[in-house]
Design brief:
heterodimer; A: 103 residues; alpha+beta; Alpha-Beta Plaits; 4-stranded antiparallel β-sheet; 33% strand; elongated; B: alpha/beta; TIM Barrel; 10-stranded mixed β-sheet; two-stranded antiparallel sheet; 13 helices
Protein backbone atom coordinates (compact mmCIF):
# COMPACT_ATOMS: atom_id res chain seq x y z
CA UNK A 1 0.00 0.00 0.00
CA UNK A 2 1.29 3.49 -0.86
CA UNK A 3 1.91 6.16 1.71
CA UNK A 4 -0.93 8.65 2.10
CA UNK A 5 1.45 11.46 1.21
CA UNK A 6 2.42 9.76 -2.08
CA UNK A 7 -1.26 9.55 -3.00
CA UNK A 8 -1.80 13.13 -1.86
CA UNK A 9 0.98 14.40 -4.12
CA UNK A 10 -0.22 12.29 -7.05
CA UNK A 11 -3.72 13.74 -6.60
CA UNK A 12 -2.35 17.26 -6.52
CA UNK A 13 -0.49 16.72 -9.77
CA UNK A 14 -3.69 15.43 -11.39
CA UNK A 15 -5.80 18.30 -10.06
CA UNK A 16 -3.20 20.99 -10.61
CA UNK A 17 -2.84 23.31 -13.58
CA UNK A 18 0.04 25.51 -14.63
CA UNK A 19 -0.01 29.00 -13.20
CA UNK A 20 -0.68 31.70 -15.77
CA UNK A 21 1.06 35.09 -15.98
CA UNK A 22 -2.12 36.60 -14.50
CA UNK A 23 -1.92 34.14 -11.57
CA UNK A 24 1.64 35.26 -10.93
CA UNK A 25 0.67 38.95 -11.06
CA UNK A 26 -2.07 38.24 -8.60
CA UNK A 27 0.32 36.31 -6.33
CA UNK A 28 2.68 39.27 -6.35
CA UNK A 29 -0.10 41.75 -5.54
CA UNK A 30 0.31 43.50 -8.90
CA UNK A 31 -2.67 44.97 -10.74
CA UNK A 32 -3.52 42.96 -13.88
CA UNK A 33 -3.03 46.16 -15.88
CA UNK A 34 0.50 46.81 -14.58
CA UNK A 35 2.81 47.32 -17.56
CA UNK A 36 5.16 44.49 -16.85
CA UNK A 37 6.39 41.49 -18.77
CA UNK A 38 6.79 38.32 -16.77
CA UNK A 39 9.69 36.41 -18.25
CA UNK A 40 9.72 33.34 -16.07
CA UNK A 41 8.26 31.97 -12.86
CA UNK A 42 8.47 28.93 -10.61
CA UNK A 43 5.80 28.00 -8.09
CA UNK A 44 7.48 25.95 -5.35
CA UNK A 45 6.33 23.83 -2.46
CA UNK A 46 3.82 21.07 -1.92
CA UNK A 47 1.03 20.97 -0.89
CA UNK A 48 -0.11 24.38 -2.23
CA UNK A 49 -0.36 25.73 1.33
CA UNK A 50 3.41 26.17 1.11
CA UNK A 51 3.40 27.76 -2.33
CA UNK A 52 6.30 30.07 -2.99
CA UNK A 53 6.60 31.97 -6.24
CA UNK A 54 9.82 33.15 -7.78
CA UNK A 55 9.30 35.38 -10.82
CA UNK A 56 11.54 37.31 -13.16
CA UNK A 57 9.88 40.37 -14.70
CA UNK A 58 10.78 43.23 -16.99
CA UNK A 59 9.38 46.74 -16.92
CA UNK A 60 10.39 50.11 -18.42
CA UNK A 61 12.56 52.03 -15.97
CA UNK A 62 9.95 54.79 -15.69
CA UNK A 63 7.57 52.21 -14.10
CA UNK A 64 10.19 50.81 -11.75
CA UNK A 65 9.32 53.05 -8.81
CA UNK A 66 5.63 52.24 -8.83
CA UNK A 67 6.17 48.50 -9.33
CA UNK A 68 8.74 48.20 -6.55
CA UNK A 69 6.63 50.35 -4.28
CA UNK A 70 3.68 48.02 -4.90
CA UNK A 71 5.80 44.92 -4.25
CA UNK A 72 7.27 46.41 -1.09
CA UNK A 73 3.79 46.87 0.38
CA UNK A 74 3.15 43.13 0.30
CA UNK A 75 4.11 41.39 3.53
CA UNK A 76 4.73 38.14 1.68
CA UNK A 77 7.52 39.47 -0.57
CA UNK A 78 10.81 38.37 0.94
CA UNK A 79 13.28 39.05 -1.83
CA UNK A 80 13.59 41.68 -4.56
CA UNK A 81 16.58 41.99 -6.87
CA UNK A 82 16.70 44.73 -9.52
CA UNK A 83 19.00 44.92 -12.53
CA UNK A 84 18.73 47.92 -14.85
CA UNK A 85 19.99 47.27 -18.38
CA UNK A 86 19.53 48.19 -22.02
CA UNK A 87 21.76 49.16 -24.96
CA UNK A 88 22.53 51.90 -25.79
CA UNK A 89 20.28 53.45 -23.13
CA UNK A 90 19.61 51.53 -19.87
CA UNK A 91 15.82 51.67 -20.08
CA UNK A 92 14.77 48.21 -18.94
CA UNK A 93 14.54 47.08 -15.34
CA UNK A 94 14.67 43.35 -14.67
CA UNK A 95 13.15 42.46 -11.27
CA UNK A 96 13.55 39.09 -9.59
CA UNK A 97 11.07 38.64 -6.77
CA UNK A 98 10.18 35.83 -4.36
CA UNK A 99 6.80 35.74 -2.65
CA UNK A 100 6.22 33.41 0.28
CA UNK A 101 3.34 31.18 1.34
CA UNK A 102 -0.16 32.58 1.25
CA UNK A 103 0.23 34.32 -2.07
CA UNK B 1 -0.15 18.13 33.23
CA UNK B 2 -0.81 17.55 29.57
CA UNK B 3 -1.14 19.80 26.52
CA UNK B 4 -4.93 20.04 26.63
CA UNK B 5 -6.99 23.16 27.15
CA UNK B 6 -9.26 21.56 29.73
CA UNK B 7 -8.91 19.07 32.53
CA UNK B 8 -10.48 15.90 31.16
CA UNK B 9 -11.58 12.64 32.70
CA UNK B 10 -11.98 10.02 30.00
CA UNK B 11 -14.47 7.33 30.97
CA UNK B 12 -14.74 3.99 29.17
CA UNK B 13 -17.78 2.42 30.82
CA UNK B 14 -17.92 -0.66 28.59
CA UNK B 15 -15.96 -2.65 26.02
CA UNK B 16 -19.15 -3.81 24.40
CA UNK B 17 -19.45 -2.56 20.83
CA UNK B 18 -21.45 -3.37 17.72
CA UNK B 19 -18.22 -3.25 15.70
CA UNK B 20 -14.79 -4.83 15.90
CA UNK B 21 -12.70 -2.01 14.43
CA UNK B 22 -9.17 -2.80 13.30
CA UNK B 23 -7.74 0.26 15.05
CA UNK B 24 -9.58 -0.16 18.36
CA UNK B 25 -7.30 0.71 21.28
CA UNK B 26 -9.52 -1.15 23.75
CA UNK B 27 -10.03 -4.31 21.64
CA UNK B 28 -13.77 -3.83 22.02
CA UNK B 29 -16.37 -5.92 20.21
CA UNK B 30 -19.83 -7.50 20.32
CA UNK B 31 -18.62 -10.40 22.46
CA UNK B 32 -16.98 -8.23 25.14
CA UNK B 33 -18.80 -7.85 28.44
CA UNK B 34 -16.41 -5.74 30.58
CA UNK B 35 -18.62 -3.08 32.08
CA UNK B 36 -18.40 -0.82 35.10
CA UNK B 37 -21.30 -0.48 37.54
CA UNK B 38 -23.10 2.84 37.16
CA UNK B 39 -22.92 3.55 40.91
CA UNK B 40 -19.12 3.37 40.78
CA UNK B 41 -19.00 5.81 37.87
CA UNK B 42 -21.51 8.23 39.38
CA UNK B 43 -19.25 8.48 42.42
CA UNK B 44 -16.14 8.74 40.25
CA UNK B 45 -17.62 11.66 38.30
CA UNK B 46 -18.42 13.59 41.49
CA UNK B 47 -14.94 12.82 42.83
CA UNK B 48 -13.34 13.89 39.56
CA UNK B 49 -15.17 17.20 39.73
CA UNK B 50 -13.79 17.68 43.27
CA UNK B 51 -10.31 16.91 41.93
CA UNK B 52 -10.64 19.72 39.39
CA UNK B 53 -11.74 17.89 36.25
CA UNK B 54 -13.94 19.99 33.98
CA UNK B 55 -14.86 17.62 31.17
CA UNK B 56 -16.30 14.11 31.31
CA UNK B 57 -15.49 12.38 28.05
CA UNK B 58 -17.26 9.07 27.35
CA UNK B 59 -15.86 6.52 24.97
CA UNK B 60 -15.66 2.76 24.93
CA UNK B 61 -16.51 0.36 23.47
CA UNK B 62 -19.57 2.00 22.06
CA UNK B 63 -20.77 4.17 24.96
CA UNK B 64 -24.25 4.40 23.45
CA UNK B 65 -24.64 0.71 24.35
CA UNK B 66 -24.05 1.43 28.03
CA UNK B 67 -27.60 1.56 29.45
CA UNK B 68 -26.81 4.16 32.13
CA UNK B 69 -25.02 6.59 29.80
CA UNK B 70 -27.86 9.17 29.97
CA UNK B 71 -27.74 9.07 33.78
CA UNK B 72 -23.95 9.56 33.76
CA UNK B 73 -24.21 12.49 31.37
CA UNK B 74 -26.91 14.14 33.46
CA UNK B 75 -24.87 13.60 36.58
CA UNK B 76 -21.74 15.12 35.02
CA UNK B 77 -23.68 18.14 33.85
CA UNK B 78 -25.33 18.50 37.26
CA UNK B 79 -21.79 18.59 38.67
CA UNK B 80 -20.94 21.51 36.40
CA UNK B 81 -18.88 19.52 33.93
CA UNK B 82 -18.94 19.62 30.17
CA UNK B 83 -19.54 16.30 28.44
CA UNK B 84 -18.45 14.61 25.24
CA UNK B 85 -19.47 11.25 23.77
CA UNK B 86 -17.46 9.40 21.12
CA UNK B 87 -19.51 7.03 18.98
CA UNK B 88 -19.26 5.13 15.71
CA UNK B 89 -22.62 6.71 14.92
CA UNK B 90 -24.34 3.58 13.62
CA UNK B 91 -26.72 3.18 16.56
CA UNK B 92 -27.77 6.80 17.00
CA UNK B 93 -31.48 6.31 16.53
CA UNK B 94 -34.18 8.70 17.71
CA UNK B 95 -34.71 6.96 21.05
CA UNK B 96 -31.04 7.01 21.97
CA UNK B 97 -30.54 10.58 20.82
CA UNK B 98 -33.57 11.77 22.77
CA UNK B 99 -32.14 10.14 25.90
CA UNK B 100 -28.89 12.13 25.76
CA UNK B 101 -30.00 15.37 24.05
CA UNK B 102 -29.48 18.35 26.28
CA UNK B 103 -26.69 16.67 28.24
CA UNK B 104 -23.95 16.42 25.61
CA UNK B 105 -21.69 19.31 24.66
CA UNK B 106 -20.05 17.49 21.76
CA UNK B 107 -20.96 14.23 20.09
CA UNK B 108 -17.87 12.99 18.25
CA UNK B 109 -18.55 10.54 15.45
CA UNK B 110 -15.79 8.39 13.98
CA UNK B 111 -14.96 8.87 10.31
CA UNK B 112 -11.98 7.12 8.79
CA UNK B 113 -11.93 8.49 5.28
CA UNK B 114 -13.80 7.68 2.10
CA UNK B 115 -16.52 5.02 2.50
CA UNK B 116 -14.25 2.20 1.34
CA UNK B 117 -11.52 3.11 3.84
CA UNK B 118 -14.03 3.70 6.62
CA UNK B 119 -15.62 0.29 6.10
CA UNK B 120 -12.24 -1.43 5.96
CA UNK B 121 -11.20 0.13 9.27
CA UNK B 122 -14.59 -0.68 10.81
CA UNK B 123 -14.48 -4.26 9.47
CA UNK B 124 -18.04 -3.78 8.31
CA UNK B 125 -19.31 -3.17 4.77
CA UNK B 126 -22.28 -1.12 5.94
CA UNK B 127 -20.56 1.01 8.56
CA UNK B 128 -20.33 4.18 6.49
CA UNK B 129 -23.85 4.04 5.03
CA UNK B 130 -25.40 3.34 8.41
CA UNK B 131 -23.44 6.09 10.11
CA UNK B 132 -24.39 8.56 7.39
CA UNK B 133 -28.05 7.54 7.57
CA UNK B 134 -28.08 8.61 11.25
CA UNK B 135 -26.79 12.12 10.65
CA UNK B 136 -30.15 13.63 9.81
CA UNK B 137 -31.42 12.49 13.20
CA UNK B 138 -28.31 13.84 14.92
CA UNK B 139 -28.87 17.25 13.32
CA UNK B 140 -32.56 17.17 14.33
CA UNK B 141 -31.61 16.35 17.93
CA UNK B 142 -29.74 19.64 18.24
CA UNK B 143 -26.71 17.94 19.78
CA UNK B 144 -23.54 19.73 18.59
CA UNK B 145 -21.48 17.16 16.75
CA UNK B 146 -18.16 16.65 15.07
CA UNK B 147 -16.11 13.93 13.41
CA UNK B 148 -12.91 12.21 14.49
CA UNK B 149 -10.61 11.06 11.71
CA UNK B 150 -7.92 8.50 12.52
CA UNK B 151 -4.76 9.42 10.63
CA UNK B 152 -2.71 6.42 9.49
CA UNK B 153 0.34 5.84 7.36
CA UNK B 154 -1.92 5.53 4.32
CA UNK B 155 -4.74 8.06 4.45
CA UNK B 156 -3.52 11.68 4.71
CA UNK B 157 -4.78 12.06 1.13
CA UNK B 158 -8.35 11.44 2.38
CA UNK B 159 -8.31 14.28 4.92
CA UNK B 160 -9.60 16.79 2.40
CA UNK B 161 -12.55 14.58 1.47
CA UNK B 162 -13.34 13.80 5.10
CA UNK B 163 -13.25 17.47 6.12
CA UNK B 164 -15.58 18.44 3.30
CA UNK B 165 -17.94 15.59 4.22
CA UNK B 166 -17.92 16.72 7.86
CA UNK B 167 -18.63 20.33 6.94
CA UNK B 168 -21.40 19.49 4.48
CA UNK B 169 -23.07 17.31 7.10
CA UNK B 170 -23.13 20.21 9.55
CA UNK B 171 -20.24 19.30 11.87
CA UNK B 172 -18.81 21.97 14.15
CA UNK B 173 -15.59 20.06 14.77
CA UNK B 174 -13.20 18.02 12.65
CA UNK B 175 -10.62 16.30 14.83
CA UNK B 176 -7.61 14.47 13.41
CA UNK B 177 -6.17 11.86 15.74
CA UNK B 178 -3.16 9.76 14.79
CA UNK B 179 -3.51 6.00 15.01
CA UNK B 180 -1.86 4.61 18.12
CA UNK B 181 -0.74 1.00 18.04
CA UNK B 182 -2.49 -0.01 21.22
CA UNK B 183 -5.04 -2.79 21.81
CA UNK B 184 -6.25 -4.49 18.63
CA UNK B 185 -4.37 -1.97 16.47
CA UNK B 186 -1.07 -3.30 17.84
CA UNK B 187 -1.87 -6.78 16.50
CA UNK B 188 -3.85 -6.01 13.36
CA UNK B 189 -2.30 -2.76 12.12
CA UNK B 190 1.39 -2.93 13.03
CA UNK B 191 3.34 -0.23 11.26
CA UNK B 192 0.22 1.69 10.21
CA UNK B 193 0.53 4.58 12.65
CA UNK B 194 1.75 7.67 10.79
CA UNK B 195 5.52 8.03 10.74
CA UNK B 196 7.32 11.38 10.88
CA UNK B 197 6.77 12.04 7.18
CA UNK B 198 3.04 11.33 7.23
CA UNK B 199 2.70 13.29 10.48
CA UNK B 200 4.35 16.27 8.81
CA UNK B 201 1.98 16.02 5.85
CA UNK B 202 -0.93 15.67 8.29
CA UNK B 203 0.23 18.85 10.02
CA UNK B 204 0.42 20.79 6.76
CA UNK B 205 -2.88 19.45 5.46
CA UNK B 206 -4.65 20.24 8.72
CA UNK B 207 -3.36 23.83 8.58
CA UNK B 208 -4.63 24.16 5.03
CA UNK B 209 -8.01 22.66 5.97
CA UNK B 210 -8.19 24.91 9.03
CA UNK B 211 -7.91 27.96 6.77
CA UNK B 212 -10.54 26.64 4.36
CA UNK B 213 -13.14 26.23 7.15
CA UNK B 214 -12.03 29.06 9.41
CA UNK B 215 -14.92 30.44 11.44
CA UNK B 216 -17.25 27.71 10.20
CA UNK B 217 -15.82 24.42 11.51
CA UNK B 218 -13.07 23.95 14.08
CA UNK B 219 -10.17 21.73 12.99
CA UNK B 220 -8.13 20.04 15.69
CA UNK B 221 -4.98 18.01 15.14
CA UNK B 222 -3.66 15.80 17.94
CA UNK B 223 -0.05 16.22 16.86
CA UNK B 224 2.43 18.82 17.99
CA UNK B 225 5.37 20.63 16.41
CA UNK B 226 8.57 20.24 18.41
CA UNK B 227 9.21 23.98 18.20
CA UNK B 228 5.87 24.61 19.93
CA UNK B 229 6.97 22.14 22.59
CA UNK B 230 10.22 24.03 23.15
CA UNK B 231 8.33 27.31 23.43
CA UNK B 232 5.77 25.91 25.89
CA UNK B 233 7.67 23.41 28.02
CA UNK B 234 5.36 24.15 30.97
CA UNK B 235 2.47 22.52 29.11
CA UNK B 236 4.35 19.22 28.88
CA UNK B 237 6.50 19.08 31.99
CA UNK B 238 5.43 20.08 35.50
CA UNK B 239 8.39 20.57 37.85
CA UNK B 240 6.34 21.51 40.90
CA UNK B 241 5.61 19.30 43.87
CA UNK B 242 2.26 17.55 43.96
CA UNK B 243 1.52 18.93 47.42
CA UNK B 244 -2.21 19.26 47.86
CA UNK B 245 -2.81 20.34 44.28
CA UNK B 246 -5.92 18.98 42.59
CA UNK B 247 -5.29 15.77 40.67
CA UNK B 248 -6.50 17.46 37.46
CA UNK B 249 -3.49 19.78 37.55
CA UNK B 250 -1.20 16.78 37.73
CA UNK B 251 -2.81 14.43 35.21
CA UNK B 252 -5.06 15.20 32.27
CA UNK B 253 -6.58 13.26 30.67
CA UNK B 254 -7.20 10.78 33.46
CA UNK B 255 -8.59 7.53 32.11
CA UNK B 256 -11.07 5.14 33.70
CA UNK B 257 -11.03 1.81 31.89
CA UNK B 258 -13.89 -0.75 31.82
CA UNK B 259 -11.94 -2.92 34.28
CA UNK B 260 -11.93 -0.08 36.81
CA UNK B 261 -8.26 0.67 36.27
CA UNK B 262 -7.43 4.38 36.57
CA UNK B 263 -4.45 5.49 34.52
CA UNK B 264 -2.93 8.68 33.14
CA UNK B 265 -3.13 9.98 29.59
CA UNK B 266 -4.40 7.09 27.50
CA UNK B 267 -6.13 3.74 27.43
CA UNK B 268 -3.71 0.97 28.32
CA UNK B 269 -0.99 3.30 29.65
CA UNK B 270 1.58 1.10 31.44
CA UNK B 271 0.64 -0.15 34.91
CA UNK B 272 3.75 1.34 36.51
CA UNK B 273 2.15 4.79 36.16
CA UNK B 274 -1.45 3.83 36.94
CA UNK B 275 -3.24 5.10 40.03
CA UNK B 276 -5.00 1.81 40.80
CA UNK B 277 -8.49 0.37 40.57
CA UNK B 278 -11.82 1.97 41.36
CA UNK B 279 -12.85 -1.38 42.81
CA UNK B 280 -10.25 -1.00 45.54
CA UNK B 281 -10.48 2.73 46.33
CA UNK B 282 -12.15 5.96 45.30
CA UNK B 283 -10.41 8.52 43.08
CA UNK B 284 -9.42 10.78 46.02
CA UNK B 285 -7.97 7.77 47.87
CA UNK B 286 -6.09 6.57 44.81
CA UNK B 287 -4.86 10.11 44.15
CA UNK B 288 -3.65 10.55 47.70
CA UNK B 289 -1.46 7.45 47.56
CA UNK B 290 -0.31 8.24 44.01
CA UNK B 291 0.81 11.77 44.89
CA UNK B 292 3.43 10.29 47.23
CA UNK B 293 5.20 8.07 44.69
CA UNK B 294 3.45 7.90 41.33
CA UNK B 295 3.67 11.63 40.71
CA UNK B 296 7.47 11.66 40.86
CA UNK B 297 7.63 8.73 38.44
CA UNK B 298 5.29 10.47 36.01
CA UNK B 299 7.21 13.75 36.30
CA UNK B 300 10.42 11.95 35.42
CA UNK B 301 8.75 10.21 32.49
CA UNK B 302 7.50 13.53 31.12
CA UNK B 303 10.93 15.12 31.48
CA UNK B 304 12.68 12.25 29.70
CA UNK B 305 10.08 12.16 26.95
CA UNK B 306 10.18 15.93 26.52
CA UNK B 307 13.97 16.05 26.25
CA UNK B 308 13.82 13.47 23.51
CA UNK B 309 10.72 14.71 21.66
CA UNK B 310 11.43 18.45 21.77
CA UNK B 311 14.96 18.19 20.40
CA UNK B 312 15.32 19.89 17.01
CA UNK B 313 14.80 17.41 14.21
CA UNK B 314 14.37 17.39 10.47
CA UNK B 315 10.77 16.19 10.67
CA UNK B 316 9.45 18.00 13.74
CA UNK B 317 5.78 16.90 14.03
CA UNK B 318 4.98 14.17 16.55
CA UNK B 319 2.34 12.56 18.71
CA UNK B 320 3.16 13.54 22.30
CA UNK B 321 0.89 10.88 23.81
CA UNK B 322 2.43 8.17 21.68
CA UNK B 323 5.92 9.31 22.65
CA UNK B 324 4.93 9.19 26.31
CA UNK B 325 3.55 5.68 25.93
CA UNK B 326 6.69 4.43 24.20
CA UNK B 327 8.96 5.95 26.82
CA UNK B 328 6.78 4.53 29.58
CA UNK B 329 6.91 1.06 28.01
CA UNK B 330 10.67 1.32 27.64
CA UNK B 331 11.07 2.44 31.25
CA UNK B 332 8.82 -0.39 32.42
CA UNK B 333 10.77 -3.00 30.48
CA UNK B 334 14.04 -1.56 31.73
CA UNK B 335 12.91 -1.49 35.37
Amino acid sequence: MSRGSDKLLADLVKKGRQASAQDVKSALSLEPTTEIKILNWHPRGLPPALLEVEAIMETPTQNLGSVVSRLAQSAQIRHINILVNGIPIPDIAQITVIAEAGQ
Amino acid sequence: MGPTNHYIIQIHPTRRCNLRCLHCYSSSGPEERDQLPAALLLQAIADARDEGYQVSSFSGGEPILYPELPALLKHARANGMKTTVTSNGMLLDRRRLDAIAGFVNVLAISLDGIPESHNRMRANDRAFDMMQSRLEGVRASGIPFGFIFTLTQYNVNELDWAAEFAFCEGAKLFQIHPLEEVGRAANVLPGESPDAIESAYGFIESERIRKVYEGRMAVQLDLVHSQVMREHRERFVDDMDAGARPLAELVSPLVIEPTGRVAPFGYGFPDAYALGSLYSASIPELASAWRRAGWRRLQQLCRTTFDDAAAPRELPVLNWWDQLTHHAQRATIGA
